[in-house]
Design brief:
The complex is a heterodimer. In chain A, 30% of the residues lie in helices and 24% in strands. By secondary structure, chain A is of the alpha/beta class. Chain A has a 9-stranded mixed beta sheet, sandwiched between helices. Chain A has a 4-stranded antiparallel beta sheet with strand order 2-1-4-5. Classes of the chains: A alpha/beta, B mainly alpha.
């Protein structure tokens, strides 16, 4: 499992200054992405998935957001301690990001060709004409029909799926080694979702890039990822290879997420097989209560859960892959508390 | 229609596609108000540039014997003085034509100055936030709270009344509105994902501001600028009215309007025609601004 890691996040804590107080949006998160692999980051809204991604990219909203501790090693370099200039040199060329909302992620006043070409003209110092030529090739690569015409069109003339393809084309322009995808398929309808995910898988096969796939959709995780990290209220609560988690979810939260997937034939509201829900909402992150942050919503919580935050216990299962679970229930099964987050 | 599958259906459509002239004509019809505005402005520019040839009389030429003549079509008017004469017998029509120079120069230059100051500050305030924003916003609020006339008067008093100084005074007092509008638009845009995407591709801050944010707010700036040109013309007339603007006998519409006030009851044309000139130029510039916005906004642009 110790093949080359492209990204290793250790004990990352990212804070936001808000009028109500300091918010730890990301609190001691450790993640690892191996070269050429995909890490899924799963969690509901506001659990710190996107902030983790923005921390890696160095795109935290200023002046409110900042990384207060931890390290982010990207290809052996600690991004937290690098100057903004070094970070900028990496962005776009070494790592790139795509966003959730294809409606607003393209600039409405330029044609899509101009926008893709800009990435080439800046990073590869190509003249504008050659950049457009490259843009055409990239559009073809991401499966856009008749790119000849499309490069002269404006974003509002394209459909959501089309725009997301263009976003991917822009991000892929300079062949990044790491692609961070922040809910790339959430705003699209289901058939288009599958196309976009397929496209990303194909591009990964072609280029050997690594992907950090942020999503709240278990289906997307199952299809795309090798490893999975489940986040809750700014912390990683469970991380392991995808099949391990799907076979034996260790954290009550993960279990709850899985049970809340609607299945055909099941009723939504009543009966034994009713669709499960996780009661309550994510706690506020200003002055969080002591203990496990999931305890108020957990049906299996006991005394200790409300008093003490559990560490990430490392369950070793039959296959020998590591399986980190942040829950007191896992204590008995754990061999030793994982000191430094689960390897994914 | 552009996907490969439907390729075949496009051919017949192409046959029924309206001819080039026809498309040009529909475009002209759609932009007709803008074109009208452009024509008005063009006329004003022509008047300003060709004043020496167009005006039947010199702007300072006094004919004391035919003072306060009414316009040509009224009893007592003569074709010699199309719009009548003022209190010292100067030809009103000629003075309005010459006055367009001052009004256009002041209106356009002052607004260019305002846009330069206002938009740059607004971009900085909206994009950087924090203390940059606080200090710029504070400045804007102070400026907006301060009576314009007092500020402009003191500026002109210090600098001395001249065309150049009036432009400077109007420019230095009028920019806060541009800062406000720009700042709000930038605040809206800076968190849009395309700006984040541009940052994720490591484009420089200057590039993001000038090439990604600025073009998106240009339509608002343009519309505001056209309104402000009209306002600058009126403000110039206000300063002239107070004796701090263009010094007599140089003809400016504002000064003429001010002089005409004394004769308002009996010789209404002395105030009415310079006022009409201000109104027409303001209207023309506004129409042109609207048309230009329609032309440059991709959402409103159709082939």
């Amino acid at each position: 499992m110790n093949s080359s890691k492209i990204l290793e996040i250790t004990e990352l804590t990212t804070c936001f200054d808000t009028p109500e107080g300091l918010v730890r949006a990301v609190d001691g998160v450790s993640l690892v992405i191996e070269s050429g692999r995909t890490l899924g980051v799963l969690g509901e809204s506001g659990c710190g998935k996107s902030v983790t991604a923005l921390s890696v990219m160095g795109l935290l909203p200023k002046p409110q957001g900042r990384i207060s501790s931890g390290s982010i090693y990207f290809q052996g370099k600690d991004l937290v301690r690098k100057s903004p200039r070094t970070l900028r040199a990496l962005r776009g060329s070494e790592m790139a990001m795509i966003f959730q909302e294809p409606m607003t992620s393209l600039n409405p006043v330029y044609t899509v060709g101009e926008q893709i070409a800009e990435a080439f003209t800046i990073h590869e110092h190509l003249p504008k004409k050659l950049g457009l030529q490259k843009a055409r090739e990239t559009l073809f690569q991401v499966g856009i029909p008749s790119p000849e015409q499309r490069i002269h069109e404006y974003p509002h003339q394209l459909s959501g799926g089309m725009r997301q393809r263009i976003m991917i084309a822009m991000a892929m322009a300079c062949r990044p080694k790491l692609l961070i995808a922040d809910e790339p398929s959430t705003a699209l309808d289901v058939t288009i979702q599958a196309q976009i995910l397929d496209l990303m898988l194909n591009l990964q096969e072609e280029t050997g890039m690594s992907i950090m796939m942020i999503t709240h959709d278990l289906g997307v995780v199952a299809e795309m990822s090798d490893h999975l990290a489940v986040m809750y209220a700014g912390k990683v609560v469970e991380c392991a290879p995808v099949d391990v988690i799907f076979n034996a979810p260790g954290h009550p939260y993960t279990l709850g997420l899985m049970r809340s997937i609607p299945r055909p034939g099941r009723k939504f509201s009543s009966g034994k097989q009713a669709l499960a829900e996780i009661p309550g909402i994510v706690p506020g992150l200003i002055d969080p209560p002591p203990g496990c942050l999931f305890a108020p919503r957990c049906d299996r919580a006991f005394e200790r859960c409300r008093l003490e935050m559990p560490p990430l216990f490392n369950l070793k299962d039959q296959s020998g892959s590591s399986h980190g679970v942040r829950c007191w229930l896992a204590e008995s099964m754990a061999q030793q508390p994982a000191t430094q987050g689960g390897r994914t | 229609m552009q996907t490969g599958v439907l390729e075949t259906t496009r051919q017949p459509r192409a046959l029924t596609r309206p001819s080039r002239i026809r498309r040009l004509w529909t475009k002209i019809c759609r932009l007709r108000m803008g074109i009208l505005g452009g024509l008005i402005l063009l006329g004003l520019l022509a008047a300003a540039l060709l004043a020496n040839w167009l005006a039947p009389h010199g702007p300072f030429e006094q004919d004391i014997m035919s003072r306060l003549q009414p316009p040509a079509w009224m009893p007592g008017g003569s074709s010699e003085h199309l719009l009548g004469t003022d209190g010292v017998g100067r030809d009103l029509f000629s003075r309005i034509i010459h006055g367009s120079r001052i009004s256009l120069a002041v209106g356009l230059s002052a607004v260019i100055l305002q846009v330069l100051i206002g938009v740059i500050l607004g971009l900085a305030a909206g994009y950087y936030r924090g203390w940059v924003d606080s200090s710029i916003s504070f400045m804007v609020n102070v400026m907006l709270g301060f009576p314009f006339i007092l500020l402009a008067m003191s500026l002109v008093a210090v600098l001395g009344p001249s065309l150049q100084n009036i432009i400077i005074a109007l420019g230095l007092t009028g920019w806060p509105i541009f800062t406000r509008v720009t700042r709000v638009e930038v605040l809206k845009l800076r968190d849009m994902e395309f700006v984040l995407a541009a940052r994720s591709l490591a484009f420089s801050t200057l590039r993001i501001m000038s090439k990604h944010i600025l073009p998106n707010i240009l339509p608002s700036i343009l519309v505001l600028a056209t309104v402000e040109v009209a306002r600058a013309i009126i403000r110039e007339s206000l300063l002239s009215f107070l004796g701090l603007g263009i010094q007599p006998p140089t003809p400016s519409w504002g000064a003429m309007l001010a002089e005409g006030r004394d004769y308002m009851l009996m010789q209404w044309w002395l105030a009415a025609f310079p006022g009409l000139a201000i109104f027409l130029s303001a209207l023309g510039i506004n129409l042109l601004g609207d048309g230009l916005r329609d032309l440059i906004d991709p959402h409103l642009r159709k082939d």
